[in-house]
Amino acid sequence: MDKTENYEVKDIKLAEFGRKEIEIAEKEMPGLVATRKKYGPSKPLKGIKIMGSLHMTIQTAVLIETLVELGADVRWASCNIFSTQDHAAAAIAKAGIPVFAWKGESLEDYWDCTLKALTWPDGSGPDQIVDDGGDATLMVHRGYKAENDAKILDEPTDNKEVQIINAVLKKKLEEDNQHWHKVASKIKGVSEETTTGVHRLIQMEEKKELLFPAVNVNDSVTKSKFDNVYGCRHSLTDGIKRAMDVLISGKTAMVCGYGDVGKGSAESLKQEKAKVMVSEVDPICALQACMAGLKVVTIEDALPVANIYVTATGNKNVITAEHMSMMRDQAIVCNIGHFDNEIDMAGLEKLPGVVKEEIKGSDCPVHRYTFEDGHSIYILAEGRLINLGCATGHPSFVMSNSFTNQILAQIDIANNPDREAIVVRLSKELDEEVARLHLNKLGAKLTKMSKEQAEYIGVKVKGPYKPEHYRY
Ligand code: NAD
Ligand code: 3DD
After folding, report:
1. Could you give the C-alpha distances from 26 to 20, 77, 157, 175, in angstroms and in order?
2. Using CB atoms within 10 A of its CB, is residue 210 exposed (0-12), middle (13-18) or buried (19+)?
């Protein structure tokens, strides 16, 4: 480990390799390159302190350096203990941008890194946040709540992560019992990358607990209908193959959830010629799965036949310990949802007589669980998102779409510092702009409509951005 005031990374000597891969990634990220060209000179984020809690990958490094190019003062941590690419973190550190992230962090390390990224050298916090899953937003809000009522930090919980967060916040409370009130009062907004993070924000808004405005980046079409679908189509089986080197063709795969990520995941497995089944709770998504030629069954129906399980629901306990005890021998179980609670890992660890063996370490976590009757299953990435835990996540071109939305969202927050604490989306015009920025790279040529045609189909006049138009 290499640690200084300004960074904590696995190995700073990886910076040169990281820089080479960042240069390659930039060629595949036309949207970010275009935003640097368009907004770089005017520096719309000049002097704005931005904290990021988002997988510290090569693609994120390009996002970070775009924020810096637009004038921001950036600090970064990852949003998952397994998703950091150490050479990317090293390159960012070498570039003088504070970063606290390495692949294989403990949960204690993770929350310590999040606090470090949220804390500037003078003890102040950020003006804006880039969040993925909402952990940075959670730390500010839980800290704020604890300053109002410290007893919440002593509420009994068997959730190890909550215990760790409470311990970090208790220590901060002793140092300064108004820290988070001061931090929250300065935050002008957060841009949220992913579905689960948006769910958390909407729940907070509905409970009137949201302390600052939020831009829902996930529901830009050029994010969720691209990253969540085509990104997972690319990176799911990449993760399974790197983890297990197993033939997927001919095997029976069960995808739990057929939303954007589930659709991409099912495609990924179908591309490998697996027989794909789906579970769903939503009738429309279930019908879509039928229309895609997929069998829609319950997880219980799958247990006697499925070889591979993928959870993609954003929900919790979708695969229980009991389900896993009834799976076929050598079944492979993984999750591509944001958090690690889709698979009941805690319940599995507690099952009597289960023996856990590490097959591969934190670079590509694979564990075998053997049950009392002698059959075994494999859990990938400890139930955390497999494509970033066992592979390198989505490719740069897909992330360029997501991250161009992030840049536009951060500029939108900077331009609207007094917005009320609600969750808004970016305009359709901006969504279309993001798509336009990526067409050339693929040689796509848009057809121009005549004025008559535009009038005939009633194309809306491009009006100014109005947040009430695009509520979540
Ligand atoms: P979504 O809401 O579009 O889809 C989730 C689907 O799961 C819905 O159709 C819902 O009906 C279904 N579902 C919910 N509970 C279920 C249950 N118990 N059984 C079966 N189906 C159930 O969300 P999404 O955009 O597809 O995202 C899913 C998860 O993936 C989220 O946690 C999101 O943050 C995460 N995500 C991960 C990546 C990645 O690279 N790993 C990328 C994007 C999003
Ligand atoms: N995510 C997937 N691949 C990624 C990559 N290469 N870099 C950064 C983040 C990456 C996660 C995103 O899909 C995020 O938008 C999400 O989880 O929704």
Report:
1. 10, 21, 44, 42
2. buried
Q: Express each pLDDT in 88-142 by its tens digit.
A: 999 999 999 999 999 999 999 999 999 999 999 999 999 999 999 999 999 999 9
**Residue 31's CB: how many other CB atoms inside 10 A?**
26
Q: Which atom number of ligand 1 is nearest to the Cα of residue 279?
A: 20
Got the DSSP string for 47-110? T-EEEEES---HHHHHHHHHHHHTT-EEEEE-SSTT---HHHHHHHHHTT--EE--TT--HHHH
User: Dihedral sign, CA of 409, 412, 416, 417?
Assistant: positive
Alpha-helical runs (H) found in 208-256: 221-224, 232-244
The DSSP secondary structure of 357-383, one letter per residue, reads EEEE-TTS-EEEEE-TTS-EEEEEGGG
Q: How far apart are CA 214 and CA 192, in angstroms?
A: 7
What is the Cα–Cα distance from 134 to 255, expressed in whole angstroms? Answer: 25
pTM for this model (two decimals): 0.96
In 3D space, the residue among 332, 338, 315 whose CA is nearest the CA of residue 388 turns out to be 338
Q: Which residues contact ligand 2 via a Cβ below 6 A?
A: 55, 57, 59-60, 132, 193-194, 227, 231, 338, 388, 393-394, 399, 402
- Ligand 2 midpoint to CA 238 (Å): 14
Active site residue 106: no
| Bridge pairing between strands 376-380 and 366-370 | antiparallel
CA of 92 to the centre of ligand 2 (A): 18
**Is 227 one of the catalytic residues?**
yes
CA 35 to chain centre: 22
Tokens in use for 163? 């215990």
Q: Would the CB of 143 count as within 6 Å of ligand 1? A: no
Tens digits of residue pLDDT in 311-357? 999 999 999 999 999 999 999 999 999 999 999 999 999 999 999 99
Element (H, E) at 301: helix 299-302
Interatomic CA distance for residues 262 and 243, integer angstroms: 20
The CA distance from 270 to 276, in Å, is 7
